Fold:
Amino acid sequence: MRASKGFRRRTRDRLKKTLRHKFKPENYMKEFKIDEKVIIKQDPSSQKGMPHPRFLGKPGRIIGKRGQSYIVNISVGNSQKEVIARPEHLKRV
Structure:
């Protein structure tokens, strides 16, 4: 069988939640301000607005809002990247 080249490949352990972490609505209702520092942490219970796994654990700064999601500026090497993520995938520093 061919190996999967999908968005969530090899994430069985990485995106697993422990028994203590359950669904909490306050994670989906978080508000962030412009220029606030955040860390990208994927929430596996919500696939909508999930950033790519290569940005997992990267710190960034909120530079704008697009609908319910936030635009996060991240430095990767010498370049700057903009990642669009929903609030349940972001964590305050």
Observations:
- The chain has a mean pLDDT of 92.
- The longest strand covers residues 59-66.
- Residues 73 and 79 are 10 Å apart (CA to CA).
- The beta strands are 37-40, 59-66, 69-76, 79-85, 90-92.
